[in-house]
Specification:
There is one protein chain. This protein is mainly α and about 300 residues long. The chain has one domain (about 15-310). It is about 80% helix and about 0% strand. The chain is built from 13 helices and no strands. The chain has helices spanning about 5-30, 35-60, 60-70, 75-95, 100-120, 130-150, 155-170, 175-200, 220-225, 225-240, 245-255, 255-270, 275-310. Helix 1 (about 5-30) crosses helix 4 and helix 2 (about 35-60) packs across helix 4 (about 75-95). The mean pLDDT is about 90.
Length: about 300
Amino acid sequence: MSDPIGPAARGVAAMVGACVIWGLSSIYYKALDDVPAPEVLAHRAIWSVVFFLGVLAVQGRLGVLRALLADRAVGVVALAAIAISTNWGLFIFAVQSGRALEGSLGYYVFPLLAVLLGVGLYRERLSGLQVAAVALAALAVLVLTLGLGTAPWIALALAGTFACYGIAKRRVAAGPVVSVTAEVVLMAPLALAWLAGVHLAGWQVLPGAEPAAFGRLPRETALLVAAGPITATPLILFSYASKRIGFATQGLVQYLNPTLQFAVAVALFGEVFTPWHALAFPMIWLALALYSFSAWRRDRAARAARLAAVAR
């Protein structure tokens, strides 16, 4: 029987699902406002390990994970773990400190920063539209810096750490689920050490917060355990989608993530959207439109070239 939906449509649906979960995840982290961000991050790593190991056990791929952790590439995996754990921690801090709007800006800026890194590290050539997109994004950041009196450091740090994570991932041959499992496995000892300090030694990062919430506060305990599936599910959906849709389509759909973050920050959290934001964000959106059109055109040209080669 033929598939009435088709693999491409299923891939787009999976990508949309992943981006919706990522885009709405700020609601989840806001619900943990009383728990210090480092503690939330530690639980995210630990419960992600539990969830991912269960997934790989069901799939019969624990041996692939062991091989990756024993391989020389484990150093690159460790660098990826540092980058993504820093990114996760910054995002949690941004949401809990009332800067979710700035966090959304970081994920808008990321693909344009990745383009610049591609030029610097891999000597990739930019099209005229891509140069215009990067310049427009830089101008938007400058507008925000001058208008608000300070650079959007959280946004830039989120974009930078995620771009570094992407560079490290390019050097790891394993698939996304296995490689992310390896990353959180490497994070787990530090996460456990931190939680031991919180629960046994009374470490407290922020006065007035609720440290050592796990096992003491039922609502917070349930939410912290949920960090595992909330982290793992979109990554599994992303892995499924990436095998079925093209890079240009992936790139376009992924903008749903920061757009939902933006909407939640303004409409649900009530964060202030200043005239400077009203000027800078449309500049970023236009830059992304230029970049996406350039990527789509390049992807279409590459497919046409492949078809021509097959026809010959």
